[in-house]
Amino acid sequence: MKTMTxxxxxxxxxxxLDTMRREPVLVTKNxxxxxxxxxxxxxxxxxxxxxFMQKEPGYEEWFQAKVGRALEAFKExxxxxxxxxxxxxxxxxxxxxxxxxTSA
Length: 104
Prior knowledge:
Blueprint: E1 2-5, H1 6-11, H2 13-22, E2 25-29, E3 32-37, H3 40-44, H4 48-51, H5 59-76, H6 84-99
Parallel strand pairs: 1-2
Antiparallel strand pairs: 2-3
């Protein structure tokens, strides 16, 4: 995966667009990852479309409560922050399982 700073992405936007058509581009600011740019074709193969689907009643409240509990656990020190690569690896594994369910 190619990495660009936010400044590079802004200054070389055309290059960013060309690159993200070939592979995801990690955008950083102040040496921290802030986003991933992917092509619309790649986005269609991810979980992103589900974000725009109709949600069941109560979803927003459930999600806010889940995020609130995670923040509290972090503040209390009962959870830890994982490295970006570790988190992205777990997300990728989940996406792969969703796209290609394992046979029993």
